[in-house]
Amino acid sequence: MGSSAEPRNAHEGLHFEATEVARCIKNGQLETPLRPLADSIAAMRVMDEIRHRCGIDFPGE
Questions:
Q1: Residues 35-56: pLDDT tens digits?
Q2: How far lies 59's CA from each of 3, 17, 37, 44, in Å?
Q3: pTM of the entire predicted model
Q4: Taking Cα atoms as reference points, which of 46, 49, 24, 45 lies closest to residue 34?
Q5: How many Cα atoms within 13 Å fall on the side-chain side of residue 45?
Q6: What 3-state DSSP class applies to 52?
Q7: What distance in Å separates the CA atoms of residue 37 and residue 34, rounded to the nearest whole number?
Q8: Measured between alpha carbons, how far is 18 from 35 in angstroms, rounded to an integer?
Q9: pLDDT value of residue 9
Q10: Would you put residue 55 in left (φ > 0), alpha (ψ -120 to 50) or beta?
């Protein structure tokens, strides 16, 4: 890597997501078939339940 390369960070894999978003937009899709919105919502519900059972609250909840 040359000196013009961006520094590594915790988000270096996001280019895969950006590529998929661009592909979906190009094809007129509102979501990717690789991870439908319903799957994302289901995962968030599970994570919220884990937080609840562990007693973890975020400000404003």
A1: 999 999 999 999 999 999 999 9
A2: 41, 29, 25, 17
A3: 0.60
A4: 24
A5: 6
A6: helix
A7: 10
A8: 14
A9: 73
A10: left
Q: Which two tokens stand for residue 59?
A: 């400000």
Token digits of residue 17:
């997501």
Q: Please say whether the beta carbons of 24 and 31 come within 8 A.
A: yes
3-state class (DSSP) for residue 16: helix
Type of residue numbered 36? P
CB contact at 8 A, 28 and 34: no
How far is the first Cα of the chain from the last one, in angstroms, to the nearest whole number? Answer: 44
What token pair was written down for 51? 């937080």
The single-letter code of the amino acid at 22 is A
